[in-house]
Design brief:
The chain has 519 residues and is of the alpha+beta class. It contains 18 helices and 20 strands.
Length: 519
C-alpha cells in the first residue's frame, strides 16, 4: 500500500488516455491480448493465483432504471461470483455503490464447498463508493480517482487479473484501461450487435425465425410508418411491440393496440393521431411521453406481438471464449409478468425438454454470427415459442442481451455449488456426482409485509424453517437481493431441486414461511 505522500504523487502524475480516444482504444486492445494469454494459462488452472475485479454496474438508461424498485441492490446479484473463492488462490475485489451487509457476505461464504469462510474472507476485498445516487456504479468509480488507486493497490499481479461487469459500455472500457487490466466481455464498439435493431439483423444472418417488423427506427414518424405497414400486411393484427434499442428486462418496451380504423389511405394519419393514446409503456412509472423521448434518443424497433394459445418465453445463455469457442451454457423458460407479459420476473431451469435442444441449436447459430462480428463473453438470446396444432413448436428469436442478465446469477450459483454442467443436446444439467438438478428462480419475491425484515431476520427465519441450501443433498433455497428486503419488501430466490416440481415445492414453502412469519 502506498504511503499518503506517495499516493498523492501517484495520483498527480497518473495520466490516462482520453476516454474514447485512439490512444484508449489501442491501450484497451493491448489489455485484451493479455486476457487471451490468461485464458490459456490461468483460467483452466483452479489453483492458479488470480484477481477478479467485479463491477456489478447497471450502465443503462438511469431515468428508466430509476423506476425499478431497489435498483441499487440489484448490484448484489453478482455476489454469486463470490463462489469463485472456492479456488484457494483466487482473490476478489467487489465494488458496490453502497456497503453490502456483512451478514449477506457471510451468508454467501458459508455456501462455499470445501473452503472455510475465514479463508475465503481473507481473499475478498469489498469496496464501496458510499453513493446511492442514480448514477451508474461505473460513473461513480470513474469520478473517484482515489478509489481507482485503492483498487489497483489491491491487485498483486496485473498479468493475472481481469475485470468482469454486468454490462459493458464505453465507461467500463475506460475503467479497464485506467485499472490496467483486461475486460472479459464484448468491446463496447460492438454495442449495436446487442441492440434490438442489431439483433434482428443477426437473426436473419443466422437463418433463425424472428417476429416480423422493422429496425433502425429513430422517430415517432418512423414508428407510425412501421405500425401502418404491419397493419396493412396483417389486417387482423391487434397489437404490436415498440422496443427501445437498449431496454432492460422489458422496461424499454411498449405495447401498441390497433383500433378498428379502416385500412385505407387514411390509416397512417389515423395511427399518428392516436399513437400516444394507443401506446402503453410496460414500465408502470414511465409515461408515454418519456417513453418516446427515450426512443428518440436511442432508437429502436417495431414488431408484431406474437399471439398463441400456448406460448412460452425461453432463453439461451451462451459464452464466446477468448479463443472463439462457443459454449451453450444453459437454457431457461422465463417467467414474464406485467399487463402483456413483457416484464422479466424469474426463470425455470432448464427449459422444457420438448424444445430445449431446439432453442439451444438456434442459439448456437446466432452465437456463430456474433463470433464472426467480434463478440466475446457471456450473453443471452430470448425467444417466443408458440405451440402449433400438430404439437410442434415455432421459435421466434426476440432479442440479444450482450451482458449478464436475470438468468446469469441463478445458473452460476448452481454451477459453482455442484460443479456440474448443462448438456445442450439433452437439455439436462448433471452435477459432478451424476445427479440431475433443476431450479425455480425469481428476482421479484415482493410483499409489503416483508418490509422491515433485516438480512439477519431472513437468515434466522431460513435456518429455523429448514430453508437453507443443503450442500450434502445439493437442494434447497438460496436468497439474493437481500439488501432490498427491509426497505422495499423485495428479494430474490433460487430454489434447487432434483426435479422441476421439487424445485417449485421449495419455492412455495419459502413463500409460505415468509408470509406466516410476517403476518
Amino acid at each position: 500500500m502506498l504511503s499518503p505522500a506517495a499516493r498523492k504523487t501517484f495520483m498527480r502524475n497518473t495520466a490516462y488516455p482520453a476516454p474514447g480516444s485512439a490512444e484508449e482504444k489501442e491501450a484497451f486492445n493491448r489489455l485484451q491480448e493479455v486476457l487471451q494469454k490468461q485464458f490459456e494459462t490461468v483460467f483452466p488452472d483452479k489453483l492458479a493465483p488470480r484477481t477478479v475485479v467485479i463491477l456489478p454496474s447497471f450502465t443503462l438508461d438511469q431515468e428508466i432504471l430509476a423506476k425499478v424498485k431497489g435498483i441499487v441492490h440489484y448490484e448484489e446479484r453478482m455476489l454469486c461470483l463470490l463462489m469463485l473463492l472456492r479456488m484457494p488462490q483466487t482473490k476478489l475485489i467487489y465494488i458496490s455503490s453502497t456497503p453490502v451487509s456483512e451478514v449477506i457476505i457471510d451468508y454467501y461464504l458459508t455456501l462455499l464447498p470445501g473452503i472455510t469462510g475465514h479463508h475465503a474472507r481473507k481473499r475478498l476485498t469489498m469496496i464501496s463508493c458510499y453513493d446511492s445516487s442514480s448514477k451508474s456504479l461505473t460513473q461513480k468509480v470513474l469520478s473517484r480517482p482515489r478509489l481507482i488507486e485503492k483498487i489497483k493497490s489491491c491487485i498483486e499481479d496485473f498479468s493475472a487479473a481481469h475485470l468482469t461487469c454486468f454490462n459493458i459500455t464505453s465507461l467500463e472500457k475506460t475503467l479497464a484501461v485506467q485499472l490496467g487490466i483486461p475486460l472479459f466481455g464484448t468491446d463496447p464498439d460492438k454495442f449495436y450487435e446487442g441492440s434490438k435493431s442489431g439483433g434482428r439483423k443477426t437473426f436473419r444472418e443466422a437463418g433463425v425465425r424472428l417476429a416480423d417488423g422493422f429496425e433502425d427506427l429513430n422517430t415517432k414518424d418512423q414508428v407510425v410508418q412501421a405500425l401502418t405497414a404491419l397493419k396493412i400486411k396483417y389486417p387482423d393484427l391487434r397489437k404490436a411491440v415498440i422496443k427501445m434499442n437498449d431496454g432492460f428486462s422489458g422496461d424499454g418496451n411498449a405495447i401498441y393496440r390497433y383500433t378498428e380504423t379502416a385500412i385505407d389511405d387514411k390509416l397512417e394519419k389515423n395511427i399518428a393521431a392516436g399513437l400516444l393514446q394507443q401506446t402503453k409503456p410496460v414500465a408502470k412509472d414511465v409515461s408515454v411521453e418519456l417513453f418516446f423521448d427515450k426512443f428518440n434518443e436511442m432508437g429502436g424497433i417495431v414488431e408484431v406481438f406474437l399471439e398463441g394459445e400456448i406460448k412460452m418465453s425461453p432463453s439461451v445463455q451462451c459464452v464466446i471464449n477468448p479463443n472463439k469457442q462457443i459454449d451453450i451454457v444453459s437454457t431457461h423458460d422465463q417467467m414474464l409478468g406485467g399487463d402483456e407479459g413483457q416484464i422479466f420476473l424469474g426463470a425455470v431451469f432448464p427449459a422444457a425438454k420438448e424444445y430445449a435442444s431446439e432453442i439451444g441449436a438456434a442459439g448456437k447459430k446466432i452465437a456463430e454470427v456474433l463470433r464472426n462480428k467480434g463478440v466475446m463473453g457471456r450473453f443471452a438470446v430470448d425467444f417466443i415459442s408458440v405451440k402449433q396444432n400438430d404439437g410442434t413448436w415455432q421459435h421466434y428469436a426476440i432479442e440479444i442481451n450482450l451482458r449478464k442478465g436475470g438468468t446469469t446469477h441463478p445458473y452460476l450459483m448452481l454451477q459453482f455449488l455442484t460443479d456440474g454442467k448443462y448438456d445442450a443436446e439433452t437439455g439436462e444439467f448433471t452435477t459432478a456426482s451424476g445427479s440431475k438438478r433443476c431450479y425455480f428462480a425469481s428476482d421479484n419475491v415482493t410483499s409489503e409485509q416483508y418490509i422491515g425484515l433485516t438480512p439477519g431476520d431472513l437468515i434466522d427465519i431460513a435456518m429455523f424453517n429448514s430453508l437453507m441450501y443443503n450442500g450434502a443433498a445439493q437442494e434447497g433455497v438460496m436468497f439474493h437481493l437481500v439488501g432490498a428486503l427491509s426497505e422495499y419488501g423485495k428479494l430474490g430466490m433460487v430454489c434447487i431441486g432434483s426435479t422441476p416440481e421439487r424445485a417449485k415445492e421449495f419455492y412455495d414453502k419459502a413463500i409460505e414461511v415468509l408470509d406466516y412469519e410476517c403476518c
